[in-house]
Amino acid sequence: MQQKLSFYQADILAITTNVKPVINYITRHNKPDTRREITLMDISGIPMHATLFGDLATNEGSILEAEIKYKHVIALSDFTISIYQGDTSISSQIILTLCINPKIELACELMEWFQLEEAAKTKGYPSTLFKNANEIHISDIIHTSQNSIQIRYCTFKTKIITILNRFEPWFYACKGCDKKVDKDVSKECLNVKCRRIIDDSVLRYLVKILVENGTDNARVTLFDAAETLIGCKAEKFITEKKEKNNQSPYFQKFVLNIGKTFKFLVKLVEKTKDERGEDNIIAQEIQLQPDITIDVDDKDATLELPRKKIKVEKD
Fold first, then answer.
1. Could you report the per-residue pLDDT of 219-249, keeping only the tens digit for each?
2. 8-state DSSP, 87
3. Any idea of the CA torsion for 201, 204, 208, 214, to the nearest 10 degrees?
4. Which has the closest alpha carbon to 146: 271, 246, 275?
5. 126/286 Cα distance (integer angstroms)
6. Most confidently predicted of 26-30, 142-146, 309-313
7. Are 168 and 297 in contact, with CB atoms under 8 Å apart?
């Protein structure tokens, strides 16, 4: 393990936000090997995906997985980088230098920024990525081809018309790839690239909602962002719903979002509207918007103001 790394050697300095289990596989040269995927974030707030191979996957990768709650800072150099559907992907398959928590000032500054970001998230405040994203109209996503653009994050405002799967907004996911697991029959991951038997699948939100803004409507899918609508983790939501059914306070909070206006953060990638399809608008983050609409009946258009007595001094 290399623990010494001067900053000028580090091409990327980032926070480790997620670490997946190590995967054993056979290379194209018919040799056994291991790999592990991790998710990183720098001060821009944009996630990056890195794949560690061999000893890095089993050694440094195991440390990062065991201590994921600490969200370590890592410095990377000597890696290969590629862009897939707009996402930045980092690979250690050739050679990579990785240092956990390098003793440099910028690493401390990055950790301070991330801690403030997490504190704001706990209080329901928008992330840096959310605040810096340009706001667009939902029709720009629905009707416009994005073949010519690089990946970019944008926001749009719409009202939730209905929640399409309000009674079962979750699924059982594979820890390795986050895809759906056949929980009831084979316990097999349904991802054709994974297909592992998963005995300890994890619960994840999968909320499908219909939104509109007066002229356009669309279906939006929420995964982790659904926690904002519901107010708790998926495991707690399911437990409460089984015990109290529709009287669960989390279920009621969930349903009462119908009719409210939210701002949605979405990632636009190089796909046409036909490739996206009606279910392919995935929101990364959502924020409730203040309702400033005042409905006034025509018959009651005159607003009565409270009368105030004024004392007048006599001559």
1. 999 999 999 999 999 999 999 999 998 899 9
2. E
3. -160
4. 271
5. 8
6. 26-30
7. no
Task: For residues 295-305, give the mean pLDDT.
Answer: 48
Helix (H, G, I), strand (E, B) or coil at 298: helix
The residue type found at 227 is E
Four-residue CA torsion sign, 263, 269, 273, 279: negative
Task: Report residue 268 as tokens.
Answer: 């636009």
Is the pLDDT score of 277 beyond 80?
A: no
Alpha helices in the chain (DSSP H): 54-58, 60-66, 105-122, 128-132, 138-142, 226-230, 234-244, 249-255, 273-276
Q: Where are the beta strands (DSSP E) in the chain?
A: 12-19, 23-26, 32-41, 47-53, 73-77, 80-84, 87-91, 97-100, 134-135, 152-163, 170-173, 202-205, 207-212, 217-222, 261-268, 281-288
pLDDT digits (tens, 9 = 90+) for 173-206: 988 788 899 877 778 888 877 777 877 889 999 9
Separation between Cα atoms, residue 18 and residue 181, nearest integer Å: 20
Phi, psi of 131, rounded to the nearest 5 degrees: -70, -30
- Sequence-ordered list of residues with C-beta below 8 angstroms from that of 157, at least 6 positions apart, any chain: 135, 213, 261, 262, 263, 264, 289
* Position 169, amino acid: P
- In sequence order, the β-bridge partners of residue 26 are 32
CB distance 136 to 158 below 8 Å: no
In contact, 170 and 163? CB cutoff 8 Å:
no
Q: φ and ψ at 197, to 5 degrees?
A: -85, 120
